[in-house]
Specification:
The complex is a heterodimer of chains A (about 300) and B (about 325). With about 300 residues, chain A is mainly α. Chain A contains 12 helices and no strands. Chain A is about 75% helix and about 0% strand. Chain A is elongated. Chain B contains 12 helices and no strands. Classes of the chains: A mainly alpha (about 300), B mainly alpha (about 325).
Chain lengths: ~300, ~325
């Protein structure tokens, strides 16, 4: 028995050692991947922009000035022009990063908590598996933003409800990813050893198995952030997310649409901001996938 | 083979039942008193009570669910709060528009995606390859509504070639096609991007295999090698992407219809959500989700026919 315990400790030790080594290795591989580096730079830039918005933004994003409405790009004092109320578009786009990142991160965090719990339970307890997977199948039966739309129709519009809706929408795919990994890991020897040592199921699930599912979770969460930001912007565009006068990219594009003939930049600019952020997260996710798990290269 | 199809069809039953339960429960999940929320803040007690009876909230949920299912099987999806019109009638009139849009954009996406994927793979690292892949990356990162608005700016505002909005419902007429080109391009843009990327990478993987080299060594022309020898095998992952994406097009239609003011299910749903017209929301969500599930079934069956490696267990 004592020998067994020592053996398990050694295995744990090795895993710990490998983990540290793997982090350095991952970081190195990520550094070699150009696209991933570009993604990382974009993401860091946008996060900084969001954090420092009050410092960087030249104007208050809500400050109206009817005398200078619908100014074109490059007008002195307003580098990206002004909108229908004379608000500075540059400042609104900078502040928009805050809302987009807030919604993206919160929705993915929300989806991850429930997705991980469902996925790990389904993967670990075979009896629960078919029940949880049927629930997931039902959630996946709503294509695209339909599930998020249905949830917003129940809860009502607003940023918080969009976070919940996009979060719930992320649950099925996250739990599938986690379940797949758990199914593989739970039959490894070290898990059997932990069970033999009498560790409780909860301990095995969250202390032994979960840390080894981190790679696919991190990769997936990064990519999901891109999708979450896109869908939140879409919901706002449809009038169900951030409400005017909020400086939110989707909502800005929606109001800009009314002026598409005389001032198309009201719509073009927020769209470009969304593309940059989404591209950043997508590239970072792709790079992380290659760095953390080359086997996942062909997985969607 | 038949067994596989039967099993796959049987698997649908719990999913469709689950979908119907979720949609039925939507009313019960509204925070607070659903009848009061739907009636609005200015409604009288009598109006709230009427809505409660209309929604069946005065009955226990399981009885209501059984009645709801009974009605669905009879094709009765309730009546719109806004217009009083039968939801099934409203859907009937618009279903064809959404389907036309989805099918048209799928065709566009498949043609553009596969052709540009093949050309990009054949000329790896050329300017065309780089351009295609950059546009494809843009296609995956850009919001659908924005692509639609940009196409409007280019083709309607600047070039004035195509109509800005609307669809006459007749895809077989020239006017119908002209009206549907931009919406279909918008909707199919990200699918085309995915298909192009997948065709390219799948082809590149295959053209380096021995049997393709052998074909080349035999002196077969490059274009024949590419299209006859390599493409056939490269097609399988592409078909998967096409299948997965066609379902997603139905979801994307919600957004595109709103941008281009097409009277389809999606636009109707968005308007119904805005007006808290629940019977209409429930009806449209039910129809779109059911179509999606059935399309996926069809794709799986087609896929199993194309790829002989699929096991039917």
């Amino acid at each position: 028995m004592v020998e067994d315990i020592t053996a398990v400790e050694t295995v744990k030790h090795k895993i710990e050692y490998r983990k540290k080594n793997r982090f350095a290795e991952t970081w190195k591989r990520l550094g070699r991947n150009k696209v991933a580096l570009i993604g990382l730079c974009i993401v860091s830039f946008v996060v900084l922009m969001a954090l420092l918005a009050p410092v960087i933004a030249p104007y208050n994003p809500y400050e109206q000035n009817i005398n200078i409405r619908l100014q074109k790009i490059g007008v002195p004092g307003h580098i990206l022009g002004t909108d229908e109320y004379g608000r500075d578009i540059f400042s609104r786009i900078i502040y928009g990063a805050r809302l987009s990142l807030l919604v993206g991160f919160s929705a993915v965090a929300f989806g991850m908590v429930f997705g991980i719990i469902l996925g790990i339970t389904a993967g670990y307890y075979s009896k629960m598996d078919s029940i949880i997977m049927r629930i997931i199948d039902v959630m996946l039966a709503f294509p695209g933003v339909l599930l998020a739309l249905a949830i917003v129709s129940i809860l009502g519009s607003g940023i918080l409800n969009v976070i919940i809706a996009v979060g719930i929408w992320s649950v099925p795919t996250i739990s599938r990813v986690v379940r797949g990994t758990v199914l593989y890991i739970k039959q490894l020897d070290y898990v059997t050893a932990a069970r033999a040592l009498g560790e409780s199921d909860a301990m095995i699930m969250f202390r032994e198995i979960l840390p080894n599912c981190i790679s696919p979770i991190v990769i997936y969460a990064t990519m999901r952030l891109a999708t979450a930001i896109l869908s939140a912007a879409t919901l706002s565009f449809l009038g169900m997310g951030a409400q005017p006068p909020a400086a939110e990219w989707g909502a800005m594009a929606a109001t800009g649409r009314n002026y598409i003939f005389q001032a198309p930049h009201l719509t073009i600019l927020p769209g470009i901001a969304i593309i940059i952020v989404v591209f950043g997260f997508n590239s970072l996710g792709d790079g992380l996938r290659d760095a953390l798990d080359p086997n996942l290269k062909n997985a969607k | 083979m038949h067994k596989y199809i039967i099993r796959r069809v049987l698997q649908l039953i719990p999913v469709l039942l689950g979908v119907s339960i979720v949609i039925f429960l939507m009313i019960y999940l509204i925070p607070g008193d659903a009848a009061e929320v739907i009636a609005g803040p200015t409604a009288t007690m009598q109006e709230v009570a009427n809505i409660r009876v209309k929604l069946g909230l005065d009955q226990p949920p399981y009885i209501q669910y059984l009645r709801y299912m009974g009605r669905i099987f009879k094709g009765d999806l309730g009546y719109s709060f806004q217009t009083g019109q039968a939801v099934s009638e409203a859907i009937k009139g618009r279903y064809i528009n959404t389907l036309s849009l989805a099918v048209f954009s799928a065709c566009i996406a498949i043609v553009i995606g596969i052709v540009s994927g093949i050309i990009a793979a054949a000329n790896q690292n050329s300017w065309f390859d780089r351009l295609t892949m950059s546009v494809a990356t843009l296609g995956i990162s850009a919001p659908t509504f924005w692509i639609g608005l940009m196409l409007i700016v280019i083709f309607c505002v600047k070039l004035q070639l195509l109509p800005v909005a609307g669809f006459n419902g007749k895809i077989w007429t020239t006017e119908g096609i002209r009206q549907l080109i931009l919406p279909a391009l918008t909707l199919g843009f990200s699918s085309a991007a995915m298909i192009a990327r997948m065709t390219r990478s799948s082809l590149l993987e295959i053209i380096h295999q021995d049997y393709v080299q052998t074909a080349r060594a035999k002196g077969v022309r490059e274009i024949v090698v590419l299209l006859k020898h390599a493409f056939k095998n490269a097609l399988i992952p592409v078909v998967t992407i096409i299948g997965v994406d066609f379902g997603a097009l139905l979801g994307g239609a919600v957004v595109v219809e709103s941008v281009f003011a097409i009277n389809g299910l999606g636009r109707m749903m968005v308007q119904a959500i805005g007006a808290r017209d629940f019977p209409m929301v429930q009806g449209t969500v039910l129809v779109v989700a059911t179509t999606f599930v059935l399309v996926n079934l069809l794709v799986d069956i087609i896929y199993s026919v194309i790829d002989p490696r699929i096991t039917y267990s």
